[in-house]
C-alpha cells in the first residue's frame, strides 16, 4: 500500500489520529490477522473452559463485525473506562475508533473474557504467561547471558575492555534492539534479529550520553518506562544496573504495567522472573542480578505500576501525580513501540516533524528507545526518508517490520 507523506505545515490538520478501517493498512492487519492468530495461540496454550473460550471468540467476532460494547457494571475499572478514559468511542465500529484507543480496549476486554478480571478460578492468571515463561527459559537467553562474559562488545572486545561511553552505547543498543523480542510482533511472522547502529533512522546517542552525564552530576533519579517482559526486559535490567553502577543515576524507577496488557508487556511479576533468571545465571549475569536484587531491597531501584500505564490515551493526558513523578526525574526513558505511540501521539505525523515539538508537553527531559513496529514516526531527516524511498521502501514497510529503530532525545 503506497504511503503519501503529509506536509509539515499545519501539523494538527496534517496528523489525524490513526484508525483501523483502511484495508491493507498496518492497523487493519492487526485486527484481521494478528488478533485471530493471538486468540488461537492463547486457546492452545492454556486449557480454558468452554465459557472462557467462547467469550474470547465472541470478542474477536465483535471486533471484526460489531460495535464497541461497554464494560459490565460490576467491572472494578468501569469508572476509569467510562469516565476518565472515555472519548466517546463506545458504540462505534471497532475499526472506526482511533487505533490506539481501540487496541488498548481490546486487551482490556480480552482479560475480561478469560476471567482475569472477574471473580472465579481464572482471576489473576496471566493469559500470556505460557509465552513469556517459554521465552525466558529458552536457550537463546542462556546464550545472551553467557555472552556478557565473552568478546561480544564492539570490535570483538570483552565488556571490560570498553570505554564508559562504548559500554553505555552497547547497553543502549542492546536494550533498543531487545524490543524486537516482542511476542505480539512475532505471532504473525515478525522475527527478532541482530541490529546495529547502521539500522537506526534517528541516532541521538551522543545527546543521550550527555543527559546521562548531567543526571550523574546531579545525583538524579532516572525513570525507565518498560515495554516487554522476557528477552527484552533482561537488557533493560542490564542497562539499569549500568546506570546505578556508574553513578549516572542515584536511583532508578522502573515503570511496568499493573496487570497483563498487550501480549508481552512487563508486569511486576515479570520483573521478578527476570531478576531470578539473572541471579541463577553464572558469571557476570549472576553478579548483575544480585546487585539489582540488593538495589530493589534498598530502594535504589523502585518498581512502579501506575494505572495510567494501561490507559488507551497518550501521555499528554497523564494525571497530575504521574506528571509530577516524571517532572522530578533527571531523565525519563521510554522503551518500545507502544510507549512511543503514547509519547508522541498515535497520529499520521509528517515523519520530519521534530521529536522535540511533539513531546513539548512532557514535564522533563525525555528519551525514546524504539524498534519501529507501527506506522507513527517523528523526528526523521529528509535525507533519511529519501534514502529509504530510494531503497524501495516507499510502501512504508520499514515503519512496521522491525528492521529499523531509533534513539531520540528531548533535553
UniProtKB/TrEMBL annotation:
Reactions mediated catalytically: beta-D-fructose 1-phosphate + H2O = D-fructose + phosphate; beta-D-fructose 6-phosphate = dihydroxyacetone + D-glyceraldehyde 3-phosphate
Keyword Metal-binding: yes
Domain Damage-control phosphatase ARMT1-like metal-binding intervals: 33-380
Cofactor requirement: Mn(2+)
Keywords: Hydrolase, Manganese, Metal-binding
Region of interest: Disordered: 144-164
Keyword Hydrolase among record annotations: yes
InterPro entries (UniProt xref): ARMT-1-like_metal-bd_sf (IPR036075), ARMT1 (IPR039763), ARMT1-like_metal-bd (IPR002791)
Pfam family, one: ARMT1-like_dom
Domain of life: Bacteria
Family stated for the protein in its record: Belongs to the damage-control phosphatase family. Sugar phosphate phosphatase III subfamily.
Identification of the protein by name: Protein-glutamate O-methyltransferase family protein
Organism encoding this protein: Streptomyces lycii
Amino acid at each position: 500500500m503506497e504511503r503519501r507523506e503529509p506536509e509539515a505545515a499545519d501539523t494538527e490538520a496534517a496528523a489525524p489520529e490513526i484508525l483501523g478501517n483502511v484495508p491493507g493498512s498496518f492497523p487493519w492487519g492487526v485486527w484481521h490477522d494478528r488478533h485471530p492468530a493471538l486468540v488461537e495461540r492463547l486457546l492452545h496454550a492454556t486449557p480454558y473452559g468452554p465459557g472462557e473460550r467462547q467469550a474470547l471468540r465472541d470478542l474477536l467476532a465483535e471486533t471484526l463485525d460489531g460495535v464497541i460494547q461497554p464494560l459490565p457494571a460490576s467491572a472494578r475499572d468501569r469508572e476509569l473506562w467510562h469516565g476518565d478514559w472515555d472519548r466517546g468511542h463506545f458504540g462505534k465500529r471497532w475499526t472506526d475508533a482511533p487505533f490506539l484507543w481501540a487496541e488498548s480496549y481490546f486487551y482490556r476486554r480480552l482479560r475480561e473474557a478469560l476471567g482475569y478480571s472477574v471473580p472465579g478460578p481464572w482471576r489473576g492468571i496471566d493469559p500470556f504467561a505460557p509465552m513469556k515463561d517459554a521465552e525466558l527459559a529458552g536457550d537463546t537467553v542462556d546464550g545472551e547471558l553467557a555472552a556478557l562474559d565473552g568478546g561480544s562488545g564492539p570490535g570483538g572486545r570483552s565488556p571490560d575492555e570498553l570505554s564508559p561511553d562504548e559500554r553505555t552505547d552497547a547497553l543502549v543498543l542492546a536494550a533498543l534492539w531487545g524490543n524486537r523480542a516482542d511476542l505480539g510482533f512475532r505471532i504473525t511472522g515478525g522475527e527478532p534479529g541482530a541490529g546495529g547502529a547502521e539500522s537506526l533512522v534517528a541516532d541521538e546517542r551522543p545527546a543521550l550520553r550527555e543527559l546521562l552525564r548531567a543526571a550523574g552530576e546531579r545525583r538524579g533519579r532516572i525513570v525507565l518506562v518498560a515495554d516487554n517482559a522476557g528477552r527484552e526486559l533482561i537488557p533493560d535490567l542490564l542497562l539499569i544496573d549500568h546506570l546505578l553502577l556508574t553513578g549516572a543515576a542515584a536511583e532508578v524507577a522502573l515503570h511496568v504495567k499493573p496487570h497483563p496488557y498487550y501480549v508481552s508487556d512487563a508486569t511486576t511479576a515479570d520483573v521478578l522472573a527476570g531478576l531470578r533468571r539473572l541471579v541463577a545465571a553464572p558469571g557476570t549475569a549472576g553478579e548483575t542480578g544480585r546487585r539489582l536484587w540488593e538495589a530493589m531491597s534498598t530502594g535504589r531501584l523502585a518498581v512502579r505500576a501506575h494505572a495510567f500505564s494501561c490507559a488507551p490515551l497518550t501521555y499528554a493526558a497523564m494525571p497530575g501525580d504521574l506528571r509530577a513523578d516524571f517532572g522530578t526525574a533527571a531523565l525519563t526513558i521510554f522503551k518500545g513501540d507502544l510507549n512511543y505511540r503514547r509519547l508522541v501521539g498515535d497520529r499520521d505525523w509528517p515523519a520530519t516533524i521534530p521529536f522535540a515539538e511533539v513531546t513539548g508537553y512532557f514535564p522533563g527531559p525525555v528519551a525514546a528507545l524504539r524498534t519501529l513496529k507501527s506506522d507513527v514516526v517523528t523526528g526523521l531527516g529528509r535525507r533519511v526518508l529519501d534514502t529509504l524511498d530510494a531503497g524501495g521502501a516507499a510502501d512504508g514497510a520499514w515503519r512496521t517490520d522491525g528492521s529499523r529503530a531509533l534513539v531520540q532525545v528531548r533535553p
